[in-house]
Fold:
Amino acid sequence: MKRGKKYLESAKLIDRMVQYEPEEAIDLVKKTAVAKFDETVEAHIRLGVDGRHADQQVRGAVVLPHGTGKTVRVLVFAKGDKVAEAEAAGADYVGGDELIPKIQNEGWFEFDVVVATPDMMGVVGRLGRVLGPKGLMPNPKAGTVTMDVTKAVNDIKAGKIEYRLDKANIIHVPVGKASFTQEQLSENFNTIMDAIIKAKPSSAKGQYMKSVTIASTMGPGVKVSTAKLV
Structure:
């Protein structure tokens, strides 16, 4: 893969053989985020589990103290009193059955997170094939299947993120924006790591935290020492 001049210049600041302390790694990521837009800083966490086994799945949600720096559009599936509650909480879109053809047939996806009340999951289930692959299916573990619509919407708008294993047993999560202060990124990163450590399955054997890398959208990856994280 051919790398651009800016990337190659940035990469010179990083020793690929070194695992940096979290604060130092974040400082390097900020220095190497040289794109003309405000890059997202992401963490890539490889775990010593096998996600193919149900008892070794790692997934959940956590509210980042400083948010993600991104405006999140929330769609709520609700009926009755919960429609007004969702609207009052600041949901961008609220509806029920009428949204099914719009999403299924018209390919409408102008939302980033889907919340549903439990009594609407029968309706939402019909969208499993389209929402599932995009990671948009509401899930009780992530707090997106709930009767407390107000809390769900408020948390998401405040910077709640979901984390889950991919097929390679890696979790990819946003930590914030390159324009955030060192302190803001550090606090967000520590919050994510604490949540993932607490979510360790009891059946997980051996080293749980295999490797942690953080990087900005266009910048090189920086390896983070996991010694103090476990």
User: Anything to note?
Assistant: Residues 77 and 116 are 5 Å apart (CA to CA). The mean pLDDT is 90.
